[in-house]
């Protein structure tokens, strides 16, 4: 298997940096001390996994990502630009959001996508949740790749301080 990770372009890195800087500057914080901009710890509940697809990266453009957790599904449209991949959610859904990391691995049989599921609420995540990951054509009639996996979770607790409230984030990984 040939693994060739592809990173973000210079333009994409610059855009991501601007977004992060904007989030830090505009984020509501409990104190007005300038140090708060640097003391804030970010966490986001999510489940991550991979899906091997028997398509070349360029052929993924316009396809549909489907992530189902215990039968409740969320969707995203895949777009590819110069070996970078993106997943745009197709609709707001209280069950969660489907996404993917921008890094796309090229394999000997096609591509490996790193998918991300952002739950609507981390309160109902339970070890043993059943996930189905699918790539379909744009019409969702033809399944191109599919993987069924079980989630295991860990929780990170962030202590409160003058700059932020205490909170917990749940991270999940999918195993075959």
Explain what this protein looks like in three dimensions:
The protein has 176 residues and is mostly beta strands. The chain has one domain: Immunoglobulin-like (Sandwich), CATH 2.60.40. 12% of the residues lie in helices and 49% in strands. A 10-stranded mixed sheet has the order 1-6-7-2-10-9-8-3-4-5, with no helix packed on it. The longest helix is centred in the N-terminal third of the chain and has 17 residues.
Summarize the structure.
The protein is mostly beta strands and 176 residues long. The chain has two helices and ten strands.
What is the element layout, followed by pairings?
Elements: E1 4-6, H1 10-26, H2 36-39, E2 46-53, E3 64-69, E4 72-81, E5 84-89, E6 96-107, E7 110-119, E8 130-136, E9 143-158, E10 167-175
Parallel strand pairs: 2-10
Antiparallel strand pairs: 1-6, 2-7, 3-4, 3-8, 4-5, 6-7, 8-9, 9-10
């Amino acid at each position: 298997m040939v693994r060739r990770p592809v990173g973000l372009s210079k333009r994409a890195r610059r855009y991501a940096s601007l977004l992060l800087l904007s989030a830090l500057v505009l984020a509501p914080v409990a104190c007005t001390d300038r140090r708060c901009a640097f003391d804030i710890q970010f966490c986001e509940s999510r489940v991550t996994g991979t899906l091997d697809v028997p398509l070349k990266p360029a052929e993924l453009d316009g396809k549909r990502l489907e992530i189902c957790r215990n039968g409740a599904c969320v969707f995203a449209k895949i777009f590819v630009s110069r070996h970078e991949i993106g997943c745009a959610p197709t609709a707001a859904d209280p069950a969660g959001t489907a996404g993917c990391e921008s890094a796309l691995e090229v394999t000997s049989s096609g591509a490996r996508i790193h998918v991300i599921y952002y739950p609507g609420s981390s309160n109902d995540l339970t070890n043993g949740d059943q996930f189905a990951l699918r790539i379909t054509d744009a019409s969702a009639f033809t399944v191109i790749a599919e993987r069924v996996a079980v989630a295991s979770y860990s929780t990170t607790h962030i202590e409160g301080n003058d700059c932020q409230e205490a909170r917990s984030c749940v991270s999940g990984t999918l195993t075959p």
